[in-house]
Specification:
The protein is an all-alpha fold and about 180 residues long. The protein has helices at about 5-15, 20-35, 40-55, 60-70, 75-100, 105-130, 135, 140-160, 165-179. The chain is globular and about 55 Å long.
């Protein structure tokens, strides 16, 4: 099977079952692209970091990059991007029409009640997925310092009115000088 067909199949699955947005689909993306040997876990971690910093949704940014890396061509980027976007677009188009017509239905309400915990679980899975040695280092002192930077960044953003971009710059600067 050609690399392009494998790429289409992988991102078709990701696009169809990636409920909850980019962070919720991270575990699906990692499973598909690392399993196929297109990238390593270290590269995946780097792609997630870069996708978070660049404009646009994380799922689309990562698809574009992984499509390029896996095929070595811009065509791979285009294919992965289109295939990851097209299924949710078509499903949303159909679902919005159906839901607006049947918004009072107990089936629709029940479906949304069932999807909420799944989305929370997928986002939690993404958080756990990113808690790896590539992000937090392999030596115990590196891990402790990384956890301190992470916790401090969370506390500053959550408990103060400091803009997240400033916290990102400060955390990156601290990491640069410490590591």
């Amino acid at each position: 099977m050609s690399i392009y067909l494998k790429l289409i199949w992988a991102y078709l699955k990701i696009g169809l079952f990636g409920f909850g947005g980019g962070y919720a689909m991270l575990s699906l993306v990692q499973n598909e692209v690392v399993k196929n040997g297109w990238i390593t876990n270290q590269m995946f971690t780097d792609i997630v970091a870069i996708s978070q910093m660049t404009p646009g949704p994380i799922g689309i940014n990562s698809a574009t990059y992984i499509g390029y890396v896996s095929t070595g061509s811009v065509l791979g980027s285009i294919i992965a991007t289109i295939v990851v976007v097209l299924p949710p677009f078509l499903l949303t188009l159909y679902a919005s029409h159906y839901i607006s017509r049947h918004s009072d239905s107990t089936i629709i309400k029940g479906a949304f009640m069932g999807l909420r915990p799944v989305v929370v679980g997928l986002i939690a899975s993404a958080a756990l997925l990113l808690m790896n040695k590539e992000n937090f280092g392999s030596a115990s002192s590196d891990q402790i310092i990384s956890i301190i930077i992470c916790a401090a960044s969370f506390c500053v953003v959550f408990f103060t009115k400091v803009h997240p971009i400033i916290v990102i710059i400060l955390a990156g600067t601290a990491g640069y000088f410490i590591f």
